[in-house]
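G., the chain you wanted modeled:
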Amino acid sequence: MSNRWKKVAEEERRGPDHPGQAGDRRRFEPDRPDAGRAVGLVAGHASKVEVEGSDFKVTREVDGGLRTVKLKGPAIITTDLRLNEPRYASLPNIMKAKKKPIDDKSAADYGVDLTPHLEVLKTSEPPGRKGGVKVKDVAELVSKLKTEAGVL
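Predicted structure as tokens:
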């Protein structure tokens, strides 16, 4: 996965790209270690993001209050739900988006090998459960647990 992120980051050097902006067609969330290896910097659970040129000022909630860090771009930032502000597209922008071509890329375009590394030898259902038994009282339950189940 990190190879794919690295290729995407190199290929599409542009400003902030998250599912709420220009990257609407990219709806996959990176695994944070893979993203860190691919792009370099990862910030998680951001409640506020400010763009300063190619750098990012990311604020997140921690136990003692708020913590702000500054990252040099490119970086991958995962966000908190409170950061989301609904975006309502206008009709002209919807029409422009319909005309915009979408690049169709395969894993091979990013140098990712999808050949399976594991072989499934066998799959089977677990055995069915046996029917339960009703007991008359606690004494019978205790005796069955001792004799039949062997748990007491």
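Helices lie at 2-11, 32-39, 91-99, 138-149.

Shout if anything looks off.
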